[in-house]
Design brief:
The structure is a single chain. The protein has 349 residues and is of the alpha/beta class. 47% of the residues lie in helices and 14% in strands. The chain is built from 14 helices and 11 strands. The strands form 2 sheets. Strands 7-6-8-5-9-11 form a 6-stranded mixed beta sheet, sandwiched between helices. A 5-stranded mixed beta sheet has the order 2-1-3-10-4. α2 links the parallel β1 and β2. α1 runs antiparallel to α11 and α4 crosses α14. It is globular, with a radius of gyration of 20 Å.
């Protein structure tokens, strides 16, 4: 499979070359309308994941002369990470970031994005697939029960793992290690004998400090630095690439439906800019972080034989287990098949 971070730099160059043109043409005409103030809830601090939504908010504010004002509230000011969907349901705010594996029971169809070794490592393929999947009936239905609608994917890069103690240079070395990894990713690590632990990102560094956690899987490389995982680690994997997740953005359905049509259009027309800004931000983080990791931590690089072994036990077998576990809740096979079909038809770099 493609390694997400290996192709991001080239994509960032392309985005960088087109950024000025995009900024000038995406919102070529000022949009008139009433005063509207929206609050968006997200955990942590501003980072690559939030760069796209911040750029969108700035543009919408500018194009409406400040009449449509979207403010992102960080650090759980409005809600805890695991309760953002609950907040949308009671109309506590108008939008939020969600991580699917923080609350798998609340968004079971969304857990498809966390299955290991999906063929979405190429950034253009990933962007195409996730954008298409935001329209899938099961993905939409997951959000409807929380008074929410899917808006835009977080396009999280492939995860890698950082940790302490004996470096897992052989696959059997993972046995018994307590690893922060959710969803199908966590199941994949369990196939290697690791102990799966699910924690919100903001709690992970503290858990490692206290010795309650041996290692943590995060989107490579930006999230490791954003949540200071590298400061608590001695080693890191650089080519395990076991999969990713979906930490994306959803909107309050009631608030969206109450908007005037021109504001709805402005929001939906912003999605491409959000996605491209996020990808460029991830690539910029890689440029800054990769050498720092190599200089300060032991790098673990697995052989192709080791990776093939891992994929054989933790790839399609985990997909099949997921379908079987969810087939009575929704058409899990169709969700997976649709994702794979979109990956097959997607343009790539």
């Amino acid at each position: 499979m493609f390694k997400f971070s290996n192709t991001l730099t080239a994509f960032a160059i392309a985005v960088g070359l087109s950024t000025s043109a995009t900024t000038q043409t995406s919102f070529a005409q000022n949009v008139a309308g009433p005063k509207v103030f929206w609050k968006l809830s997200v955990w942590g601090n501003p980072r690559a994941l939030t760069a796209g939504i911040e750029a969108m908010a700035d543009n919408i504010r500018e194009e409406t002369d400040g009449n449509f004002d979207i403010k992102i509230f960080y650090g759980g000011q409005l809600s805890q990470a695991t309760e953002n969907l609950d907040g949308l349901k009671v109309n506590a705010f108008e939008g939020a970031a969600i991580c699917n594996f923080y609350h798998p029971g609340k968004n079971p169809a969304w857990m498809v994005f966390s299955l290991p070794f999906l063929p979405i490592g190429d950034p253009q393929v990933d962007k195409y697939v996730r954008t298409k999947m935001m329209e899938h009936p099961a993905i939409v239905a997951d959000m409807e029960q929380w008074n929410a609608i899917p808006f835009v994917s977080g396009l999280l890069p492939q995860f890698e793992i950082m940790g302490n103690g004996h470096a897992p240079v052989e696959l059997e070395d993972w046995a018994g290690k307590r690893v922060r990894a959710g969803g199908g990713l966590g199941t994949a690590m369990e196939k290697l004998g690791a102990v799966k632990t699910t924690l919100p990102a903001g709690e992970t560094s503290t858990a490692m400090q206290r010795g309650a956690l041996d290692a943590a899987a995060f989107p490579y490389t930006y999230a490791h630095v954003s949540f200071k995982i590298n400061e608590e680690s001695e080693w890191f994997t650089s080519n395990l690439a076991p999969g990713t997740s979906e930490c994306g953005w959803v909107l309050n359905k009631s608030a969206y439906e109450a908007l005037p049509d021109q504001y709805k259009k402005l929001l939906m027309d912003s999605r491409e800019k959000v996605l491209d800004t996020q990808l460029a931000s991830y690539a910029a983080a890689d440029e800054k972080n990769l050498q720092m990791f190599k200089d300060t931590l032991e790098e673990i690089v697995y052989s192709e034989d080791q990776l093939t072994q891992f994929r054989e036990v933790a790839g399609k077998p985990v997909w099949e287990e997921w379908v079987a576990a969810n087939k009575e809740k929704f058409d899990a096979q169709d969700v997976l098949d649709t994702l794979l079909r979109h990956a097959e038809e997607a343009p790539s770099n």
